[in-house]
Each structure stands twice: as structure tokens, then as C-alpha cells.
Amino acid sequence: MKPVPTESDWRSVPFCLDTAYAFDHFFGKTRQEALQLLVENSLCYQEDFFYIPTPCLEYYIEAYKDYLLLDASRYDGSSAAWFMIVMDFRQDNVLTLSPATIERMRQVLKHLALHQAWYDADRVHGSFPMLAEQGLNRLKSS
Predict the structure, then answer these.
(1) Any long-range contacts for 40-49 (C-beta under 8 Å, 24+ apart)?
(2) 3-class secondary structure, 41
(3) Which long-range contacts (CB under 8 A, 24 or more apart) does 30-38 make?
(4) How far apart are CA 125 and CA 92, in angstroms?
(5) Alpha-carbon Rg of the chain, whole angstroms?
(6) What is the mean pLDDT of the chain?
(7) pLDDT tens for each residue of 61-116
(8) Could you tell me which of 80, 97, 107, 134 has the fewest CB atoms within 10 Å of its CB?
(9) Rounded distance, CA 59 to CA 13, Å?
(10) Going by C-beta distance under 8 Å and a sequence separation of 6 or more, which residues neighbour residue 105?
(11) Which residues contact 119 (CB under 8 A, 6 or more apart)?
(12) Sign of the CA dihedral with 77 first, then 82, 88, and 91 last
């Protein structure tokens, strides 16, 4: 397992205001601590995944994926949909992640595609099967 990202990992890109918020939320946190943040209030932290620098993304995306597979994420359609939106928005960064991380992302996407009702995600969240298929197609090149 990768070590907790260092400050130099975080500062590998210039900070915008949103990166600074992500840093404040996640810097120094273990994967388990990051997971606990998501369990406690996923809506507060899901946007951070747009701005976490790529060297840190591989570490913290694991907590997000873990959260989406927990019973605690039931009825959390926003976080489930947001995961797929982040995948789309950060596509170039995602494709640089390790093959093992990408494979776990594929597994989560397949899970999301089959469980839209479990997450209580309505049409506002889009079609999970369609969004997941788009994400899976983007990951084929890796």
C-alpha cells in the first residue's frame, strides 16, 4: 500500500482555493481517516476529488471507492454519481494511476451500474449504467 501523501506530493501543482480546501481536509490523513470523513459527511468532501493533486489522487481515491462499497453509502446517490463525474473530469489523471487502482475503479463502476436504486439515485443523478459504461470505456485504454 502506498504511504500517506507528503506535503511535497500535495504541492506538486500550484494551489487554487479548492486545492487548498482539499489539502486542509485530507493532508496527513490515512486512507482509513479519509474514509471516515466520507462516512461522516460525504457531501462535504466529494468535490475535493476534483482538486486533489494527481500524486495524492491514487491514495485518496481508494477511500472514496471503499466508501461507495460500504452500507454507509446506501441512499447516497450524489456521492455515487459524483465519483463517475470525477472520473470523467480527471480522465487524463486517472489514466496515469496504477493498473491495480484502475482495476478497482472498474469494479466500482460495474457495481454502480447495477445498483442505482440502492443508492436512491434518481434521474437528476443521470443513468448509472450509462455513466458507468462511459467510464469503463475510458479505462479500456489503460
Answers:
(1) 42/67, 42/73, 42/76, 42/78, 42/79, 43/78, 43/79, 46/78, 46/79, 46/82, 46/83, 46/86, 47/18, 47/82, 48/18, 48/21, 48/22, 49/22, 49/82, 49/83, 49/86, 49/90
(2) helix
(3) 30/4, 31/1, 31/4, 31/59, 31/60, 31/62, 31/63, 31/66, 32/63, 34/60, 34/63, 35/63, 35/66, 35/67, 37/63, 38/63, 38/64, 38/67, 38/79
(4) 23
(5) 14
(6) 94
(7) 999 999 999 999 999 999 999 999 999 999 999 999 999 999 999 999 999 999 99
(8) 107
(9) 16
(10) 61, 65, 87, 94, 97, 135, 139
(11) 73, 74, 75, 76, 77, 80, 112, 125, 128
(12) negative
Count other Cβ atoms within 10 Å, centred on residue 120: 13
Residues 6+ apart with CB under 8 A from 90: 49, 50, 57
**Under 8 Å between Cβ of 90 and 57:** yes
Q: Which three cell numbers stand for residue 81?
A: 454519481
